[in-house]
Amino acid sequence: MEELNDFNEEKESNFDLKAEIFKYLAYWHWILLGFLVGGLLAYLYNRYTIPKYYTQSTIQIMKDGENNVMSALPSGAGLPFSLCKMTDWKII
Question: Are 72 and 62 spatial neighbours (Cβ–Cβ below 8 Å)?
């Protein structure tokens, strides 16, 4: 039963956040210098590193008369009919 009571009791903390902040703010110039040097090194590394990956692509521009989706496929037209003709069908 004592184990359950240990979780319910609030323990007093001696941690002072304001004192910790002011303790580190005394060294603000070193912190700022560290950020500037780190930022400069990151910039120089990204600026002068050779890219490892290269991609290339091509685009095929179709004529206006060939706005058919199936004609853009590499196999020509995989189905015996095109999608353009399907839009002209009517249900009677």
Answer: yes
Q: Residue 14 and residue 35: Cα distance in Å, rounded?
A: 31
Give the distance from CA 48 to its chain's centroid: 23
Find tokens 């999608």 and name the residue.
83
Element (H, E) at 40: helix 28-48
**How far apart (Å, rounded) are the C-alpha atoms in residues 82 and 71?**
8
Sign of dihedral through CA atoms 6, 8, 14, 20? positive
Tens of pLDDT, residue by residue over 40-80, are 999 999 999 988 888 888 877 766 655 556 555 555 555 55
State the Cα–Cα distance between residues 11 and 41, nearest whole angstrom: 45
Residue 19 backbone dihedrals phi, psi, to 5 degrees: -65, -40
Can you tell me whether residue 63 is helix, strand or coil? Answer: coil
Task: Return d(Cα 35, Cα 31) in angstroms, integer.
Answer: 6
